[in-house]
Amino acid sequence: MSRIIAGRAGGSRLASVKAKNTRPTTDRVKEALFSRLEGYNVLSGADVLDLFAGTGALGLEAASRGARAVTLVDRDRSALEACSRNKRALEASGTDARIDVVNSPAESYVKRSQGPWDLVFVDPPYSMTDAEIAPLLAAMTPGLRDGAVLVVERSARDPEPTWPAGLRRFGHRSYGETALWFAEPED
């Protein structure tokens, strides 16, 4: 079972998802990711978008660590139920973040919303190809604030995502089967 690692809701357990295409981010990867994000000073007061949210673990971890607002987006019924349960649990722990759970395909939501976001997590099913992810990255780029961080989680066997104009990769880390790619808006 996944949990919130740190912050106001640190130690809280998260409800899991029964969806077949959902693979939770391990606590080890989450801890390394958020250590890095805290180093970038991007969490406090952030507007966060968590696409392909699954349980909402990444967005809710950001909420626990000081994000201002978090939007969890998924289209799978089981994932949405888990996100809603986990949202209620986090709110009960006293977090101040506004948390929204949205039933939508990721690209449709991004095109409709257009941000602005300070931190975006893109954690699609490993079966999703780069050709399917590239248009999503392009659609969200205009909604990123200056200094925003975009994190793409993929299989370590997958190639680097194709970055659209307006985004620049500035980091990459692998943890076993999981690869994290970090990008930011270009000046």
TrEMBL record:
Pfam families: Cons_hypoth95. Keywords: Methyltransferase, Transferase. The keyword Transferase applies. Its EC number is 2.1.1.171. Gene3D superfamilies: Vaccinia Virus protein VP39 (3.40.50.150). It is an enzyme of class 2 (transferase). Signal peptide: none annotated. It comes from the Bacteria. This is 16S rRNA (Guanine(966)-N(2))-methyltransferase RsmD. It comes from Rothia koreensis.
